[in-house]
Design brief:
By secondary structure, the chain is an alpha/beta fold. It folds into 2 domains: 228 residues, Response regulator (Rossmann fold); 153 residues, Rossmann fold (3-Layer(aba) Sandwich), CATH 3.40.50.2300. The chain has 13 helices and 18 strands. The strands form 6 sheets. The chain has a 4-stranded mixed β-sheet. A hairpin with a 2-residue loop joins strand 3 and strand 4. Helix 5 runs parallel beside helix 6. The radius of gyration is 21 Å and the shape is globular. The N terminus is likely disordered.
Length: 425
């Protein structure tokens, strides 16, 4: 995905005039909203606020998230908006750019709540920035529905105002471990014979992904042959990949958001790394197929959502319908990132909660969010007491001939696994 230093211009919006009210363009200091909202409700418009990564290292996924928020806002408004006490209201999102910096996220949320009067928050992009955001929304007792912070660390603090529509991060690559065990046993080996190499970014999300992998490896008695951290700038993992070529593991697992995925895919191609099974987060967001072609074939890519799954709702129709609408609404997407889909789902939860609460009182709305139990195009959403979604599974897709095919768990699979990986360098 292209760098997005001019975040909104990097994609075609759904009609420039349509979104002129959604994103109030600003310039200085990276502020995307111009002028404070006088209150949480402006006439017939409900203001949702978000500090999101539109520049910095998470910017590409930040724009994906913003596009998902905006698409859902547009769809809900077209369908009549939100009805509270018999009156219809439109939704609008007030954005600030947190520059992919957690401290900035917290600062901007303080501004949204204290200065701008926004009482309903859509989460930022990434676990690191969401971890910074949660204490702020908790302090002001303002509900936040987030779609991009998957770290388990968010859900063991007793937060009452934090709700996440996505599955938690320890689940992301666990299915790859189970799949490696299944393949080993089909080929006359023991699961405990599987040798695993790992390289992860040193951030909350990726280290949680690692924890899930390690936990599942222990269940099967698998062997760790490499356990490395990516450099802080995520720009070079050739030292790890050189070790991979020498030690020849059965499974290589990688997580470093979009930039880490681009680095890994590029250097796997350059070094012609030949591993039977490679599993990597953020394949779609990093556009590894577009950038690296047949060298990315065989990558296993965990996803929160896929257009082939049999999910549907009254807003977007089926998962396939959402996929089609998103691609027609925004240029440059061959595959819709799950980050966009789950962002849209978060907006739907807000809409439903306002209507079930039939109130704008933040505690009543918070209780309505907590009671959410619904089906969406993105999957089922039901929150635990801790605020995480306990109803939706992760799935694993494999890049096959440049296309993403669901291969695990088997009950969701649309295609068989290709093993060993057959990439073309």
């Amino acid at each position: 995905m292209k760098s997005t230093n001019a975040p909104v211009k990097a994609r075609k919006t759904i009609g420039a005039r349509t979104f002129s009210g959604l994103v109030l363009a600003g310039a200085a200091a990276g502020l995307i909203a111009a002028g404070p909202a006088s209150a949480k409700i402006e006439g017939d418009t409900i203001i949702l606020g978000s500090a999101i990564s539109l520049t910095g290292k998470y910017s590409s996924n930040g724009v994906d998230t913003q596009n998902g928020y905006n698409l859902a806002v547009k769809k809900i408004n077209e369908m009549g908006g939100v009805t509270v006490n018999g009156k219809s209201y439109k939704l609008k999102v007030q954005y600030y750019d947190d520059e992919s910096t957690p401290a900035r996220t917290a600062q901007l949320l303080e501004r949204l709540i204290e200065q701008d009067g926004v009482q309903y928050i859509l989460g930022p992009y990434s676990s690191a920035t969401t971890i910074a955001a949660a204490p702020v929304t908790e302090k002001y007792q303002v509900p936040m529905i987030e779609a991009e912070g998957a770290s388990r660390a968010l859900f063991n603090k007793g937060y009452r105002y934090l709700f996440a529509v996505l599955s938690t991060s320890e689940q992301y690559l666990a299915s790859a471990v189970s799949l490696a065990a299944e393949v080993a046993e089909k080929n006359g080996k023991k699961a405990s014979d599987v040798r695993v190499a790992m390289v992860f970014e040193n951030d909350a999300f990726s280290q949680d992904v690692r924890a899930g992998v390690v936990e599942d490896m222990k269940k099967f008695g698998m062997q760790t042959v490499i356990d490395d951290k990516m450099p802080a700038d995520l720009s070079d993992i050739s030292a790890t990949l050189t070790k991979v070529k020498a030690l020849k593991p059965d499974l290589l697992v990688i997580s470093g958001h979009n930039k880490g995925a681009v680095t890994a895919a590029r250097q796997i191609k350059e070094l012609q790394v030949d591993v039977p099974m490679i599993a990597m987060t953020h394949c779609e967001g990093a556009k590894v197929v577009a950038q690296f072609g047949a060298a990315s074939d065989g990558f296993l890519c965990p996803t929160q959502w896929a257009e082939t799954l049999s999910y549907s709702d009254k807003y977007f129709g089926s998962a396939a319908d959402y996929d089609k609408l998103f691609k027609s609404s925004y240029d440059g997407y061959k595959n819709v990132p799950y980050q966009s889909a789950q962002a849209s789902a978060a907006v739907i939860v807000w809409k439903e909660a306002f209507e079930r609460a039939n109130s704008f009182d933040t505690d009543k709305v918070r209780d309505a969010i907590s009671a959410t139990d619904m089906e969406t195009f993105y999957g089922p959403i039901k929150f635990s007491e801790a605020g995480n979604n306990i109803a939706k599974p992760m799935v694993l897709r494999q890049i096959q001939g440049g296309e993403y095919k669901v291969v695990a768990p088997s009950k969701y699979a649309s295609d068989p696994l290709v093993w060993p990986r057959e990439a073309m360098y």
